[in-house]
């Protein structure tokens, strides 16, 4: 039964890493409760598994986000079994994701300045494994993308659709077409300006070497396509993940908002406009301190 489900995931076109993750999560459930895929499972069994993950005897408790990911994998599996009449009962119907006091922090992850510096080092030093890829071209493009996401707060689809004509290097501003076709203009900082100038200069050289670059109206292209797709950008960024933090494109937008709040002394209206948030309550979430911020605050208490 589990093998049929895995075949279904392949047919659905899921990424290989996602399928592996789903398989491992589901196998963990069966192994830890000593049951088989076809056995009758109740919500009580699921709750028992959750309790074991929250209160392990020989290892550290799993993070809430990890437990919820496992539950989501199991939820998908049992939904498929009932839909395809493999089983009659879905034990996940009564199970909801766990919540914690730090739920907003877990959902909104950003990079510290030290982590950003470490990332730049990783980008520079990481070897290129794909055959036929120009290491310098990839380094310059990927670095520019990271800077643009971090210093302008673009969404990944906004970056993928960003055209050369959207950049005004003289007036130092970017025209961004966001959600709902809403257009906003973001100033280009001196730091970002230098990065973009380097990339555009290098890109101009590639125009003479690659036909698909010459035909591309977009700021960023892939190895074979005139446009760097959203999925391509996501995969590229995930490949640079830090040892203890999986990177996503949206994490850099979170970083932009967090850093901008600090730079503007918590002026959430300025940050709202720069980030293109329709509702200021979305921006206000970034006012929540990280665990590191809270730790620093506790350590700053007077010592007697």
TrEMBL record:
Residues 1-82 form the Core-binding (CB) domain. Transmembrane segments: none annotated. Gene3D superfamilies: 1.10.150.130, Intergrase catalytic core. InterPro entries: CB, DNA_brk_join_enz, Integrase-like_cat_sf, Integrase_catalytic, Integrase_recombinase_N, Integrase_SAM-like_N, Tyrosine_recombinase_XerCD. It comes from the Bacteria. Keywords: DNA integration, DNA recombination, DNA-binding. Residues 106-299 form the Tyr recombinase domain. SUPFAM superfamilies: DNA breaking-rejoining enzymes. The keyword DNA-binding applies. Pfam families: Phage_int_SAM_1, Phage_integrase. The keyword DNA-binding applies. Belongs to the 'phage' integrase family. This is Tyrosine-type recombinase/integrase. It comes from Metabacillus fastidiosus.
């Amino acid at each position: 039964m589990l093998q049929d489900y895995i075949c279904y995931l392949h047919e659905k076109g899921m990424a290989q890493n996602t399928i592996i993750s789903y398989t491992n999560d589901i196998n963990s459930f069966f192994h830890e409760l000593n049951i088989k895929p076809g056995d009758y499972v109740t919500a009580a069994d699921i709750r028992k598994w959750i309790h074991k993950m929250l209160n392990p005897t020989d290892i550290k408790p799993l993070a809430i986000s990890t437990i919820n990911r496992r539950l989501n994998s199991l939820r998908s599996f049992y939904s498929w079994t009932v839909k395809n009449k493999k089983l009659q009962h879905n034990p996940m119907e009564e199970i909801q994701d766990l919540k914690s006091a730090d739920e907003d922090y877990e959902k909104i992850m950003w990079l510290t300045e030290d982590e950003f510096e470490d990332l730049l080092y990783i980008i520079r030093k990481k070897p290129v494994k794909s055959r036929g890829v120009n290491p310098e071209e990839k380094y310059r493009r990927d670095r520019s993308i990271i800077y643009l996401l971090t210093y302008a707060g673009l969404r990944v689809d906004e970056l993928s659709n960003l055209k050369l004509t959207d950049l005004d290097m003289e007036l130092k501003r970017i025209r961004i077409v966001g959600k709902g076709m809403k257009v906003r203009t973001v100033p280009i900082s001196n730091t970002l300006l230098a990065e973009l100038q380097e990339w555009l200069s290098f890109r101009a050289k590639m125009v003479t070497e690659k036909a698909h670059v010459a035909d591309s109206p977009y700021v960023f292209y892939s190895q074979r396509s005139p446009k760097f797709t959203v999925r391509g950008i996501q995969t590229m960024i995930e490949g640079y993940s830090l040892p203890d933090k999986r990177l996503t494109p949206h994490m850099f937008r979170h970083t932009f908002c967090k850093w901008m709040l600090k730079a503007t002394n918590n002026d959430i209206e300025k940050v709202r406009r720069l980030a293109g948030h329709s509702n200021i309550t979305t921006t206000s979430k970034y006012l929540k301190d990280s665990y590191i911020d809270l730790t620093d605050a506790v350590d700053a208490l007077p010592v007697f």
